Structures are given as C-alpha cells and as structure tokens.
C-alpha cells in the first residue's frame, strides 16, 4: 500500500526556494512535489524531474499548482534539500515535498481530473468538487489540490464511495489566495466523483475555487502465458514367432495442455529493468525469468546481460 512516509513544506517566498529532504529517503522511492505560484509565473521543471500535471486558477483565483515526480537515486539520498524556482519572472512560490514508499511497483501519476470555476452558493455551504477519477489498481495514493481566492484553512475532506482517510500536507497563502494540498490512500479501487471539504472561516457567496485530483498508480500485474505442450508416443511392432498369431497394436497418441497461469510481477519500486527479446538472435523456444534477465534456447544455451547492455552466452549444460 502506498503511503506518504514523510514530507516537508516551505511557505510562499521569493524564489528560488528550498525544501528539506523528507526523512528516511532511500533509492527507488518516489518523490512527489506540489509547487504553487502565481498564474502569471511558470514553475521551472527541475532537472531529472517529470512534470505530471497542473491545476490552474480560474476567474479570481490567481494561483496555480504543479505536480512533479522523481525516482530517488543515490544523489537524492545524499542531498540535504531540493530547490525549485519560477522560470520567467522573479516571483514567489511554495509547496510540499513528499516521500512515497510501498512494497508494490508504482508508475508515477496515472488518472487525474480537475474541477475549475467552482463558485460557492453562500455562507454555511461547504464546497463540493466534482471529478471523475478511477484508480488503475487497489492501494492507489491520491493527491488533492485546492486553489481558492481569499485565505482559508481546509479540513474534513470526504469523498464518495470507498472512504479515504485524508491528511493535509500544505496550506499556504499568497496575494490573499490559498493553495491547499492533501493526500490519502484508497485500499480498494473505486471511482471518485465528489469530494466535500470544510473551510475556515466560513465563506460567503461567489467565492471561487479550483480543484485537482491525481492518482499515483499502484501495483502492476504481469501475465505469463506458456505454449501448449503436445506429446506423442508409439508402440514398437513385436517380433512374431512361427505359427504364432499376434494382433499388432495401433500407434498410441496422446496430447496434453498446460493451463495458463497468471503471475504477479513484484519488481523494484518504480524501476524499469526490462530487456527486449529482439536483442537476442537465433533463439528458439525462449524461456525467460520473471525479470527478463536470463534467456535459454532449445540447445540449453544460457544468455545473460553483461554491463546491462549486451547479451552473451555464459554456459552450456
């Protein structure tokens, strides 16, 4: 199950800003950053990171938020903090940096949806956002982002369907507007269509807000399908002695099939170690292991990768 194991935030300030590395970070864990700035600015994508999506303020909302992801490597583990900045003008930005960990394989951001241009109906009515996000697998981690005109503190997040326990990760104010970030893990995959929140202080009529919901995809399943095995056999003709009558048996033929198994592949977090079969020439009846690292041909020749680039014959039984 994916969880945010640790997170740190930085309040809105003139860029560049630095966010302290989440505690306990290890290689191959996923880093998720949500960075907010004015709609007139652009958050630069840091080297090695992937820009996964944007929630843009509409109407009177002057903020935007971007989601970045990165699979942690040794340099990230050794780092003390991470830097973010706007790319076009001198502006302020702030946000949160989260360390996501799990025993499953994850594939960064999957499905997402936004609800922009929400306008409150009046005092005493909590905001309800409408989206359509169906997670790809069970145990998906969701990242929610609310942008609002005026300064608000949000709490009591509640979604339809399979209940999720939500945790606030960031709440910051810039030029009188608010960016709010929260996360939650859904144990059983189910579509989320509505999300209700409580804000403080209570808003009046016509307050505009924008919302985005992003899925961090969970476990990847793999199916292994073997070929049908066919077996045939025959009975040798007997030797017939003089004055002996023997009925020659017919040739016996039998066939069998192997039921197709389904195998769940547990690979290193977020890593891609697949090797393409087309780099191995003259292979018949290939057999590969679960990680696509070893190939055997019908002559019992074993092939393995060398320096993670080329394949070579290593042994023969």
Task: Walk me through what this model shows.
This protein has 317 residues and is mostly beta strands. It has one helix at residues 74-78, and strands spanning 3-14, 17-20, 30-38, 50-56, 63-71, 81-84, 92-101, 109-119, 128-133, 140-148, 153-159, 167-174, 177-186, 192-200, 208-216, 287-288, 295-296, 301-306, 310-316. The chain has two domains: 3-216, no CATH class; 277-316, no CATH class. The protein has a five-stranded antiparallel β-sheet with strand order 1-7-3-5-4, with no helix packed on it. Strands 8-15-10-13-12 form a five-stranded antiparallel β-sheet, with no helix packed on it. It has a four-stranded antiparallel β-sheet with strand order 16-17-18-19, with no helix packed on it. The longest helix has 5 residues, at 74-78. It is elongated. The model is unreliable at 219-224 and 265-287 (pLDDT under 50).
Q: Per DSSP, what share of the residues sits in E-state strands of 2 or more residues?
A: 35-45%
Number of strands: 19
Helical stretch count? 1
Which spans have pLDDT < 50 for at least 5 consecutive residues? 219-224, 265-287
Please tell me how large the radius of gyration is.
Answer: 29 Å
Average pLDDT confidence is: 76
Number of domains: 2
Strand order of the largest sheet: 1-7-3-5-4
Helical content, roughly? under 10%
Shape: elongated
- Largest sheet report: 5 strands, antiparallel
Query: What's the order of the H and E elements?
Result: EEEEEHEEEEEEEEEEEEEE
Structural class: mainly beta
Alpha carbon gap, first and last residue: 42 Å
């Amino acid at each position: 199950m994916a969880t945010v194991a640790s997170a740190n935030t930085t309040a809105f300030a003139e860029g560049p800003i630095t966010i302290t590395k989440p505690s306990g970070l290890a290689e191959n864990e996923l880093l998720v950053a949500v960075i907010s700035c004015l709609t007139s600015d652009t958050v630069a994508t840091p080297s090695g990171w992937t820009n996964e999506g944007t929630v843009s303020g509409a109407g009177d909302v002057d903020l935007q938020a971007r989601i970045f992801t990165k699979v942690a490597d040794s340099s990230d583990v050794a780092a003390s903090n991470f830097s973010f900045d706007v790319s076009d003008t001198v502006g302020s930005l702030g946000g949160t940096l989260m360390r996501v960990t799990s025993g499953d394989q994850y594939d960064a951001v999957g499905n997402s949806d936004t609800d922009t241009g929400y306008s409150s109906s009046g005092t005493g009515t909590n905001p309800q956002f409408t989206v359509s996000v169906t997670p790809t697998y069970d145990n998906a981690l969701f990242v929610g982002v609310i942008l609002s005109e005026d300064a608000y503190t949000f709490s009591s997040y509640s979604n339809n369907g399979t209940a999720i326990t939500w945790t606030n990760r960031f709440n910051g104010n810039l030029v009188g507007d608010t960016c709010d970030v929260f996360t939650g893990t859904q144990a059983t995959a189910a579509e989320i269509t509505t999300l209700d929140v409580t804000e403080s202080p209570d808003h009046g009529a016509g307050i505009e807000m924008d919302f985005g919901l992003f899925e961090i995809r969970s476990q990847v399943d793999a199916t292994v399908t073997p070929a049908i095995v066919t077996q045939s056999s025959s009975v040798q003709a007997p030797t017939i002695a003089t004055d002996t009558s023997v009925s020659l048996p017919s040739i016996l033929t039998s066939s069998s099939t192997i039921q197709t198994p389904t195998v769940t592949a547990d690979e290193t977090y977020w890593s891609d170690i697949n090797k393409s079969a087309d780099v191995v020439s003259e292979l018949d009846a290939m057999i590969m292991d679960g990680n696509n690292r070893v190939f055997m041909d019908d002559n019992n020749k074993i092939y393995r990768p060398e320096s993670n680039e080329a394949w070579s014959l290593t042994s023969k039984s």
